[in-house]
dihydrofolate reductase (Pygocentrus nattereri), 194 residues
Amino acid sequence: MSSLADGAQLKPIRLIAAACNNLGIGKDGRLPWNIPSEFQFFLDTVTAVSQPGKKNLLIWGRCTWFSCPEGVLPLPNTLHVILSKKLRSVPKLAHYLCEDFDGMIRLASLPPLNDLIEIVWVIGGTNVYREAMEHPWCDLIYLTDIMADFDCDVFFPNFDKNVYRKQSGFPGVPDEIQEENGIKFQFQVFKKEC
Ligand SMILES: NC(=O)c1ccc[n+]([C@@H]2O[C@H](COP(=O)([O-])OP(=O)(O)OC[C@H]3O[C@@H](n4cnc5c(N)ncnc54)[C@H](OP(=O)(O)O)[C@@H]3O)[C@@H](O)[C@H]2O)c1
């Protein structure tokens, strides 16, 4: 990671994803399943701030951004950063374009945004998740276990469960197995043990 200027304000970096039995997360540019209550949990989590006026920074790989279902955006309490080396302008409804992960970190942690931003939520895809989980500021991985097999062409990266330890009774995250549309799933949170 490149060094940050003096005064950079540490921001918690958190991943949020849902993955099925083989860690699949996507197929043909879309989610492989339709589980509205799981998607609502995602929306509720990334839009939660501790006080009015604060914002969370949502980090999207280019493909994930353009796969977002119509009608989801805009989202309250959020600013959207698209990661891409190819795009030349900020897509409609997004706020910032960064050409690498470090550029996004500088955006989040230095003026003028540093006082506004609470949490950096990384919302995919694969490469963005991988960079985020390796970053020293990453503390939590929210990973819903979709307890079923789906045909997928994009996968959540493997991570060390001795570094990120599964939590039980994590505040605000139901522990029990749920079911919708015939698909069982369970919310999970993994916390980095330093
Ligand atoms: N189940 C879930 O929780 C979940 C979550 C998110 C996404 N998904 C699914 O995953 C699929 C999309 O994910 P994906 O992995 O294929 O693509 P993606 O990460 O969304 O997009 C890949 C593109 O993002 C840009 N990018 C990624 N990392 C970058 C970096 N460090 N710096 C600069 N640019 C970077 C590059 O764009 P350029 O080529 O423009 O440089 C790259 O080609 C979809 O099927 C989506 O539905 C599922």
